[in-house]
């Protein structure tokens, strides 16, 4: 059974992020499962650090984008919105080229907070970053 309050199309999700940071660095939402969200990020001139590998900040952008979108899809956005409170990331191995894939899954979905885990893998499916984001669920009008 799906956890989503709303399930927009992939095209709608990607269009909403096209004119801000995720769109500028080539991030794409690629799959919405019953209880997970998947996106990809190219490892290229926009996302590499000076040593030629994926910038840790780019991995965090992927993680935060997936966690934020997922959190907001779980709530009734006519009544609530979700904002990030804390994010952490452990960078486990470098990625020099290709695309990385992030998968966000819920750890906790509560009335006032949510916690999401985002696992980012390299083009060979090896884990290169694991992240966790805590989201505040805020009623409109506050």
From TrEMBL:
Keywords: Hydrolase. The keyword Hydrolase applies. GO terms for cellular component: cytosol. GO terms for molecular function: 1,4-dihydroxy-2-naphthoyl-CoA thioesterase activity. CDD domains: PaaI_thioesterase. The keyword DNA-binding does not apply. InterPro entries: HotDog_dom_sf, PAAI_dom, Thioestr_dom. It comes from the Bacteria. Residues 51-127 form the Thioesterase domain. Belongs to the thioesterase PaaI family. This is 1,4-dihydroxy-2-naphthoyl-CoA hydrolase.
């Amino acid at each position: 059974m799906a956890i989503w309050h709303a399930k927009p199309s992939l095209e709608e999700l990607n269009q909403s992020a096209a004119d801000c940071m995720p769109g500028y660095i080539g991030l794409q939402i690629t799959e919405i499962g019953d209880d997970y969200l998947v996106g990809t990020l190219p490892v290229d001139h926009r996302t590499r650090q000076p040593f030629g590998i994926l910038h840790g900040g780019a991995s965090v952008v992927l993680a935060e984008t997936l966690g934020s979108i997922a959190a907001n899809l779980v709530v009734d956005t006519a009544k609530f919105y979700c904002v990030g409170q804390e994010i952490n990331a452990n960078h486990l191995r470098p990625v020099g080229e290709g695309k990385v894939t992030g998968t966000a899954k819920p750890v906790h979905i509560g009335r006032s907070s949510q916690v999401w885990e985002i696992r980012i893998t390299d083009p060979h499916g090896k884990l290169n970053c694991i992240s966790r984001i805590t989201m505040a669920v805020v009623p409109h009008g506050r």
